[in-house]
């Protein structure tokens, strides 16, 4: 039997790597990939808690489904925005896109 | 006793693969390779869901993440990659970055370890998909409809954004 802590630690490691990517990467698509990694870490937590909590609670898995759907919507919107930004600016390097900066 | 060990071995293999893949998503020089490592990560996480006996979530993970989102990201890379421009990956301060990640993990893990969690997996009835579907269409039917509306709105918005040039 695998202790619940192992799943939580795995999710923490994935979340930390995703947060590192969001903070340091310059290519916007790679930042989106990092966000997807963080989403996956959160969903691992949801499913693990739904299976290990002392009463049979399927809600965690239902909310994992909702999280997957929201994450798919977010990826579609984000990538469409990147394509528009690429058309306007010719780059998706987030250090070079300065229009919203004061 | 032997089954317990097999469980743990499979878990550690999946964990190693997923951590390696997520590091490679961040550090692969070619962003195309990064997207393929992302697919590997999603497959490994689907394996973790199978270990958790959540087979429906595992299937959805493979279909939505491993299929749809990876293909979307690959298309976005193809459409936004400037030919000949190699993304510069500075490997300066690699030690410092690794230390920062490990410190953040330690910060997250410390309260996790200190909390007493229930360590027994629930005896499943082998009706995971049935249970998820039943709960989804009884207790959570309104959130389900809201999510479907949100997804529809997001996809219409994505189509509108990427077609705008044609309309002008």
Based on the model shown, name its key terms.
heterodimer; A: 102 residues; mainly alpha; 75% helix; B: 168 residues
User: What global shape of chain B is seen?
Assistant: globular
Number of strands of chain A: 0
Mean pLDDT of chain B: 85
H/E series of chain A: HHH
Give the amount of beta strand of chain B, in percent: under 5%
Q: The biggest beta sheet of chain B, please?
A: none
Average pLDDT score of chain A: 88
The stretches of 5 or more residues of chain A where confidence is low (pLDDT under 50) are none
Terminus-to-terminus distance of chain A: 55 Å
Largest interface: A-B, 71 and 79 residues
Write down the overall geometry of chain A: elongated
Global structural class of chain B: mainly alpha
Could you provide a short overview of the structure?
The complex is a heterodimer of chains A (about 100) and B (about 170). Chain A has helices spanning about 5-25, 30-50, 60-90.
């Amino acid at each position: 039997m695998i202790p619940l802590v192992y799943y939580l630690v795995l999710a923490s490691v994935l979340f930390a790597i995703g947060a590192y990517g969001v903070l340091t990467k310059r290519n916007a698509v790679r930042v989106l990939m990092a966000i997807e990694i963080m989403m996956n870490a959160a969903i691992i937590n949801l499913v693990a808690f739904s299976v290990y909590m002392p009463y049979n609670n399927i809600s965690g898995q239902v909310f994992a489904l909702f999280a997957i759907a929201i994450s798919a919507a977010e990826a579609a919107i984000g990538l469409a925005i990147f394509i528009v930004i690429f058309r306007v600016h010719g780059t998706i390097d987030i250090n070079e896109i300065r229009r919203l900066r004061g | 006793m032997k089954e317990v060990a097999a469980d743990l071995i499979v878990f550690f293999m999946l964990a190693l693969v997923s951590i390696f893949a997520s590091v490679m998503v961040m550090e692969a020089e070619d962003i195309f390779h990064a997207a393929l490592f992302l697919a590997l990560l999603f497959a490994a996480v689907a394996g973790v869901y199978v270990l958790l006996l959540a087979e429906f979530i595992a299937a959805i993970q493979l279909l939505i993440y491993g299929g749809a989102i990876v293909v979307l990201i690959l298309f976005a890379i193809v459409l936004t990659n400037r030919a000949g421009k190699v993304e510069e990956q500075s490997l300066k301060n690699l030690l410092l970055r690794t230390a920062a990640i490990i410190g953040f993990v330690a910060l997250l893990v410390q309260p996790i370890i200190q909390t007493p969690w229930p360590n027994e997996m629930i005896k499943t009835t082998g009706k995971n998909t049935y249970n998820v579907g039943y709960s989804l269409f009884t207790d959570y039917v309104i959130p389900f409809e809201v999510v479907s509306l949100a997804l529809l709105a997001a996809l219409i918005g994505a189509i509108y954004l990427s077609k705008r040039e044609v309309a002008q």
